[in-house]
Amino acid sequence: MSTPVILITGAAGGLGSAIAKRFSQSRWRVTATDVDKAGLHALNALVPLDFSATTDLRSAANCQELIAEVMVATGRLDAVINAAGVWREGPVERFGEEDFDLVMGVNLKAAFYISQAAIPHLRENRGCIVNIASDAGRRAYRGSAAYCASKAALVMLSKTLALELAEHGVRVNTVSPGDIATPMLDYQAERYGKGNPSAYKRALLRDYPQGREARFLRPEEVAELVWYLCQPQAEAITGADLAIDFGLSAGK
Ligand SMILES: NC(=O)c1ccc[n+]([C@@H]2O[C@H](COP(=O)([O-])OP(=O)(O)OC[C@H]3O[C@@H](n4cnc5c(N)ncnc54)[C@H](O)[C@@H]3O)[C@@H](O)[C@H]2O)c1
């Protein structure tokens, strides 16, 4: 079999780049996209990329164009990881349309149209899709309605796709991490921490059942689960939403 090819969206981000490293270590050919051009450049210094493109994925046309470019560059596609994502918070009463469209556009619409464009190519290789959702798609948090709704919708998009593609041997799952130590978490704490980002982070950790032992996930831990889901041993896993959150979403 020729070397498998993965496409990672949000590849310049904390989780996306960890996923790129994990698959590269196992000799997959890695293709990457992000809006962050400098971040993609930095990734390319660490991970040999077969193809990369700076693309805003909030448009269906951009998603289609990107998949077409990946196919020209590599000739095949075996796995797609939709890891691009944004966080915005604020109560529904004061949440602006621009932020709502941004959150839905990156977290949900991009995954929908990237998946749609990738389907014919994934069918050829009985490939797979992993969408990165969140604990916030499994339980509600005050002040995060748009983000929670986008991730819950992503889970249902994935389950529906799993049903539609099962007869073609294409598997689709979501991974729902708790808080991961990435630039997104730093951004949340800086922007919404009312001048005290450390207190914002400590408050997040207080929610975990581990108490004083609670910690944030490392992106590599999540990347390992994504890796497993793309292996033949995971053949029975499709339509699943796998939590990796220390039990955060299990209940209070
Ligand atoms: N960090 C966390 O605590 C956490 C927890 C649960 C789920 N997640 C999810 O994990 C995924 C990865 O997040 P991360 O923590 O690595 O954050 P990150 O901010 O480090 O990475 C997200 C990447 O998405 C890219 N992106 C943003 N808008 C885009 C657009 N319009 N088009 C293309 N790319 C765009 C960003 O440039 C960034 O590189 C996201 O879907 C996020 O929602 C993160």
Rounded to an integer, what's the Rg over CA atoms? Answer: 17 Å
The counted number of beta strands is 7
User: Which shape, going by the Cα principal axes?
Assistant: globular
Task: Compute the separation of the termini in Å.
Answer: 47 Å
**CATH topology title of the largest domain:** Rossmann fold
Would you identify the regions where 5 or more consecutive residues have pLDDT less than 50?
none
CATH superfamily placement of the largest domain:
NAD(P)-binding Rossmann-like Domain
Identify the strand order in the major beta sheet: 3-2-1-4-5-6-7
- Overall pLDDT metric: 98
Approximate helicity band: 40-55%
Tally of structural domains: 2
What's the quick description here?
The chain is of the alpha/beta class.
Key traits:
252 residues, alpha/beta, Rossmann fold, 2 domains, seven-stranded parallel β-sheet, 8 helices, 7 strands, 15% strand, binds nicotinamide-adenine-dinucleotide
Structure in words:
With 252 residues, this protein is α/β, with parallel strands linked by helices. The chain has two domains: 197 residues, Rossmann fold, CATH 3.40.50; 36 residues, no CATH class. It is built from eight helices and seven strands, in the order βαβαβαβαβαβαααβ. A seven-stranded parallel beta sheet has the order 3-2-1-4-5-6-7, with helices on both faces. Strand 4, helix 4 and strand 5 form a beta-alpha-beta unit. The chain is globular. The model has no long low-confidence stretch (mean pLDDT 98). The site of nicotinamide-adenine-dinucleotide has 28 residues, from helix 1 and helix 6. Nicotinamide-adenine-dinucleotide binds next to helix 1 and helix 6.
